[in-house]
Specification:
The structure holds three protein chains of three kinds. Chain A contains 13 helices and two strands; from the N terminus they run H-H-H-H-E-E-H-H-H-H-H-H-H-H-H. Chain A is mainly alpha-helical. In chain A, strands 1-2 form a two-stranded antiparallel ribbon. Chain A is flat, with a radius of gyration of 24 Å. Chain A starts with a helix and ends with a helix. Chain B is mostly helical. Chain B has helices at 10-18, 26-38, 41-58, 60-63, 96-132, 134-148, 152-163, 167-194, 197-204, 209-245, 257-264, 272-299. In chain B, helix 3 (41-58) packs across helix 5 and helix 5 packs parallel to helix 8 (167-194). The longest helix of chain B has 37 residues, at 96-132. By secondary structure, chain C is an alpha+beta fold. The longest helix of chain C has 27 residues, at 13-39. Chain C starts with 12 loop residues before the first helix and ends in an 11-residue tail after the last strand. Classes of the chains: A mainly alpha, B mainly alpha, C alpha+beta. Chains in contact: A-B, A-C, B-C.
Chain lengths: 314, 305, 565
């Protein structure tokens, strides 16, 4: 088990490095002059040169990458001239909001999906199954930004049941709940749909397999059988859950922008529109690294649960 | 023609190999798949919808005489079934039907093109990596993993922002995003086929690598890839629409469903139905692709064990 | 094994039923919790209301992409001054923004009176006594000198590079400054400069104690001024709260609190207003106006010095030296078409400043839509229909830009109708700004023929310096290559003329020169659109980009559906 963990970790390192290179390249190819843009209408040429130097924009690319990497490793993600704060500060402030929304979406999506998938799988062929499958398909196909706009217009602007922007946390902790409902619905629907489908397929496949009959023949009680079924069925769900986290983190840009939810997604989008390269770098990096780590954890969890995978590695 | 269980002794294997008995015969397989597919009415319906959508997009100039790019501001935001504008007009007075039809071209291209290119490139990379394995295979897959480490939409947005606005750049972005998953599917499929007994037998029989690739490997791997790719088209379209919605892809006055949704947002008070139209089109197309992909998977679901 | 997929009978129904029941229970609980919390007032607790003509909390959705930094001066352009700068700080002078009879002019604020030396170079200001900063530090000449050094003396210990860069245009004519006694300060200019008072309205004074305690790098979280509101909460990117200053020298403002939210998307600002998340929304989508009005919201519009006046690239052909061409394009614009497009929140521009502005020349006919004349002039300029292809760079967003997308598409159609092709070059607003700072003669921007420009056309006379002058004082670049000696001559004459009537006269002559020469596309004026809930009272919309918050109060949340819970 430990061997697998170390093996996976070692394999992850080149990926992490590759991620940093990709992020750096992406962001430093952007056109436009960020120095002039920060200072606004009234800057003198001298001031612009000074800012450009401060930002280190006058050095060759490879050198900038190495400097940047060195800073990253020491926890310094840079300083955003637009927001006039260290990038790490901005990320810390934003990540909490994104985590809150992403966790809630993941919980609703995954748990709800497993639940619905169980029901659909158990009652496969019946009307319930059909209805759930159709709902799942719709949830999968509807673009999240479309749903978000529609929800906003109907339930916020029109019916006034829910607020239109923000987390509510600046007002009070309790105000969080009405604020999170609409973004949650829009954000979790795809996860819900995918998890439902995967769970259903997995349940169907597992229940139909020989080992269940074998266990029954051996005289195992129903609870123990369910446990075995669950253990076998849960594996593909785990895989997708890792991917779903990635989807939630990435798709957060759209949801957060539409609902003005001050998380990492909105941070990245604002940074892109204002050409705040340093923030784009830092935020993309953090999200990608988180995704790698999450998938690593999911991998290890799966290896723990499913011995076949362990063998496959060897 | 149904598939029989594979021979179990080495002699029988050799015999079968020379007799080409256990080779997957391409034509009857596809005919078989089509037969199965035809029986699934949902799949057929989705295919029909897709053909209808694609057809109407391609035949747009024949279906409407209105200009999708220019309109009279006086005519703006007319409702459904207005004279001359069956689906109304948008915030600039342009005919909605024309915009939706021509926009369908953009959206469908944005769906198909990245998927096609990514499938080609990804399959090449993945099958090669899965086939040769070893150091080359590992390096290739690690490279794919590096890109795969980014959540899809985030990567698409980042690449799109780096390249600049425009639908072409968005298509490039989505292509880059899709290559790693396709490569992964191809690699996994290849690896699982490679360890099958018949592959081992064929190799033992002395068949060359390339022949193995062509006759044994590709047909089996392609199944998985085709099914996967058919699901990707809808996703590509939605990602492109998302990029347009954020202003990173389609630029004015190009019609594209995601872009139209953003442009009409401010007018939601005057004409809520209009705002919803492009979204519905994206939704229906996406559902059709997903359903088609599902039906295809079921129809192709044959395994040699 | 049964191939029909039914569950083997021994996997008992009990297990699944039990599980299912628990799951349903959990789902019901969560749904109930959300709905209950939704019932608990959409705004999470209604903010305090005022009564009897005073009090209340005013929540504002700004169009800026972020909350303006509470520096001196703030960023985010004029929106920064409007909501943050003018509330937290005062200058030596302040515009009279609580009236809408005339364009606001500089009035005494932290300086109660001033005299000008006979050579017109030295101004002596008498400072207001009894004023303290929000932290208790007394305001006096030391504070003034401190800030002037901080903004204009690179060798000063507390010199703030960024702030100085933002304020640079307003300090061009400052030569030196001196403390005469605790409440008297003198400023000497580099030349006789009649508009010093306008510039001084932009120079804000922070508490020297705070700057010295926290340093410039950490100043923002502790921003302290003398103004009518005190910054009591600031979460960058999310919200800023300003609480009334009970000891304000101009009298405590009526409001108790102002809460600022950044919201760059118009549709979202309206949604926030309608869901009772804010009481005041800047620039809603024009299409929403009718519905908002019918729902009882207050719509404010009014003329003010703002316009969209794109600049021709006068460094090279086709516009350099070709007056007829520039005039032709001005006549080709269907300005009424755009007015209809934006639901009348703008109106056609005949000149650079709006009719009624002091520098508007009633005698000059100005430009209007005349496609026949446009075609004629185009031919006179030497171009057949279809011969001319132009590249027009414009922003995709940005506050103060009205509605670039539909406007540009209309312009494209208008020009095509007279035989000129326009290629649209959409860009980020910050890129457009940076082009204005580098210039269209630089290689990376030299392919642009027309550059979008949205000036505060005439808010203050020295504002014309940005777009009109051939030689800009202070070494700033001439971005579009405009070089009209009549314009420059009249401008500088106006700047030295202390008699307001004569000064205005020179500026009118300057305008005439620019108009005859058709140096800009005189396109549209904006109408300062904003919308408020019926509970906001006492607001007067001035002819300005800025606003006075002293007399506003919020009371009696009104109408709408409050049927929750």
């Amino acid at each position: 088990m430990l061997r697998i963990a170390i093996q996976r970790l070692v394999m992850a390192i080149p990926i992490l490095i590759g991620v940093t290179v990709i992020v750096f390249l992406l962001v430093n190819v952007l056109p436009g002059d960020p120095a002039a843009a920060i200072l606004g209408d009234n800057a003198t040429p001298a001031a612009r040169v000074q800012i450009a130097h401060q930002l280190g924009l006058d050095q060759p690319l490879a050198l900038r990458y190495l400097h940047w990497l060195g800073h990253i490793l020491s926890g310094n993600l840079g300083y955003s001239p637009y927001r006039q704060r260290p990038v790490a500060d901005l990320l810390t402030q934003a990540v909490g909001n994104t985590l809150a929304l992403a966790t809630a979406s993941a919980l609703v999506g995954l748990l709800g999906g497993v639940l619905l998938g169980f029901i659909a799988g158990r009652r496969r062929g019946t009307l319930t199954d059909r209805v759930i499958s159709i709902v799942g398909l719709s949830g999968l196909s509807i673009p999240s930004f479309f749903l978000a706009v529609v929800l906003l217009m109907i339930f916020s602007a029109n019916l006034r049941w829910f607020p239109a922007a923000g987390t509510g946390l600046d007002v009070s902790f309790v105000a969080f709940f009405p604020h999170v409902v609409l973004p949650l619905i829009a954000g979790s629907l795809t996860t819900l749909a995918i998890t439902t489908r995967v769970t259903r397929a997995s349940i169907v496949e597992t229940e139909g397999s020989d080992f269940v009959l074998t266990l029954q023949a051996k005289g195992l009680g129903s609870t123990q059988i369910s446990r075995h079924v669950l253990k076998n069925a849960i594996s593909p769900v785990l895989t997708t859950s890792g991917l779903q986290v990635g989807y939630l983190l990435g798709g957060s840009i759209l949801i957060e922008t539409i609902f003005s939810w001050p998380g990492i997604g909105m941070l990245v989008y604002n940074a892109i529109t204002t050409r705040d390269l340093i923030v784009v770098q830092g935020a993309t990096l953090v999200v990608a690294l988180t995704f790698v780590v999450v998938n690593l954890i999911v991998d290890l969890l799966q290896a723990t649960i499913d011995p076949r995978l362990r063998r496959a590695v060897q | 023609m149904t598939v029989e269980s594979p021979p179990r002794t080495v002699e029988a294997l050799r015999e079968a190999w020379y007799a080409q008995d256990i080779e997957v015969d391409a034509r009857p397989f596809w005919a078989e798949t089509w037969r199965r597919f035809r029986g699934n009415w949902v799949g057929v319906l989705s295919l029909a919808i897709l053909i209808l959508l694609a057809g109407s997009a391609v035949l747009a100039p024949l279906l409407t005489s209105q200009d999708p790019l220019v309109g009279q501001p006086i005519d703006r935001l007319r409702g459904l079934f207005s004279p001359g504008h069956p689906l109304g007009t948008d915030e600039m007075g342009r005919d909605m039907l024309a915009r939706l039809l021509y926009g369908g071209r953009m959206s469908l291209i944005a769906g198909f093109l990245p998927t096609l290119v990514a499938t080609l490139v990804g399959t090449l990379i993945g099958t090669w990596a899965g086939f040769v394995q070893g150091a080359v295979g590992t390096v290739l897959m690690r490279l794919m993993d590096m890109l795969y480490a980014f959540p899809a939409i985030l990567l698409a947005i980042a690449v799109s922002a780096a390249l600049g606005p425009g639908l072409t750049n968005a298509i490039v972005a989505v292509t880059i995003v899709f290559i790693p998953p396709v490569a992964r599917v191809a690699e996994q499929a290849t690896r699982s086929v490679v360890v099958q007994e018949y592959m081992e037998a064929a190799r033992l029989s002395g068949a060359g690598r390339f022949k193995l690739l062509r006759t044994q490997l590709l047909p089996n791997v392609l199944n998985d890839i085709v099914v996967y790719a058919s699901g990707l088209v809808g996703v590509a379209m939605v990602i492109a629409a998302s990029l347009s919605f954020l202003g990173l892809a389609s630029q004015p006055p190009t019609p594209e469903w995601g872009y139209m949704l953003e442009g009409l947002r401010g007018s939601i008070y005057l004409a809520p139905v209009l705002v919803v139209l492009p979204g519905i089109f994206i939704f229906v197309t996406s559902v059709a692709f997903n359903t088609f992909s599902d039906a295809l998977r079921e129809a192709m679901n044959t395994r040699l064990n | 094994m049964a191939g029909d997929g039914t569950l083997p009978p021994t996997l008992s129904r009990r297990t699944w039923t039990g599980f299912w029941k628990t799951a349903v229970l959990i789902t019901v609980l969560i749904t109930a919790a959300s709905l209950t919390s939704a019932c608990m007032s959409v705004a999470g607790g209604a903010p305090s209301s005022g009564k009897n003509g005073a009090g209340g909390t005013l929540r504002i959705a700004m169009s800026a992409g972020n909350i303006p930094f509470p520096t001196t001066p703030p960023d985010q352009g004029y929106e920064g001054y409007r909501f943050v700068g003018n509330n937290i700080y005062d200058g030596l002078t302040k515009y009279n923004l609580d009236q809408n009879a005339a364009i606001p002019t500089p009035q005494p604020a932290l300086a109660t009176s001033w005299t000008v030396s006979p050579d017109q170079l030295t101004w002596t200001f008498n400072l207001r006594r009894g004023v303290t900063f929000h932290d208790g530090t007394p305001f006096n000449a030391d504070a003034v000198i401190f800030q002037l050094n901080r903004e204009d003396d690179p060798h000063f210990k507390y010199y703030d590079t960024l702030a100085a860069a933002r304020l640079a245009t307003y300090l061009i004519f400052f030569k030196n400054w001196r403390k005469i006694d605790d409440y008297t300060v003198s400023i000497t200019t580099t030349q006789p400069y009649a508009w010093l008072l306008y510039d001084l309205a932009h120079v804000f004074f922070p508490s020297p104690t705070v700057v010295q305690t926290y340093g410039n790098a950490n100043y923002n979280q502790h921003a302290t001024g003398t103004g009518p509101f005190i910054m009591t909460k600031y979460i960058d990117g999310q919200v800023m709260e300003l609480t009334a200053n009970d000891h304000y020298w101009g009298g405590r403002p009526k409001l108790d609190k102002i809460v600022l939210y950044p919201q760059p998307v118009a549709a979202s600002r309206v949604a926030m207003l309608q869901s009772n998340g804010v009481d005041w929304a800047e620039v809603p989508s024009p299409d929403a106006i009718n519905q908002l009005r019918s729902q009882g919201y207050q719509i404010f519009m009014g003329e003010y010095p703002h316009g969209i006046m794109p600049r021709f690239n006068l460094f090279r052909a086709p516009f350099k030296g070709n007056v007829k061409l520039r005039q032709a394009l001005n006549f080709a614009l269907n300005r009424q078409g755009i007015t209809a497009l934006v639901n009348n929140v703008g109106y056609p521009a005949k000149q650079y400043v709006y009719p009624g502005h002091p520098n508007y020349d009633p005698a000059f006919p100005g430009y209007a839509y005349d496609p026949a004349k446009a075609k004629q002039l185009l031919a006179d300029a030497g171009y057949q229909p279809g011969q001319l292809h132009l590249k027009f760079a414009y922003p995709t967003g940005g506050s103060g830009n009205m509605f670039p997308d539909p406007m540009m598409q209309q312009l494209q159609a208008d020009f095509k109708a007279v035989g000129v092709d326009v290629e649209l070059m959409p860009m980020e607003w910050s890129t457009i700004v940076s082009i204005g700072l580098t210039g269209l003669d630089k290689p990376e921007w030299s392919n642009i023929d027309i550059l979008w420009s949205s000036p505060a056309a005439g808010q203050e006379p020295d504002g014309f310096m940005l777009n009109f002058l051939c030689q800009r004082p202070g070494g700033q670049p001439n971005a579009a290559g405009m070089c009209n000696p009549d314009v420059d001559r009249n401008y500088f004459a106006a700047s030295r003329e202390f008699d307001p009537r004569k000064s205005t006269g020179y500026l009118q002559k300057m305008m005439d020169a620019a108009l005859t020469d058709a140096d800009f596309l005189f396109w549209m004026h904006d109408l300062n659109l904003r919308v408020m809930s019926p509970s906001v009272h006492g607001f007067v919309q001035p002819k300005s980009w800025w606003v006075d918050f002293g007399k506003i109060w919020v009371g009696e949340q009104c109408c709408g559906s409050q049927s929750n819970g």
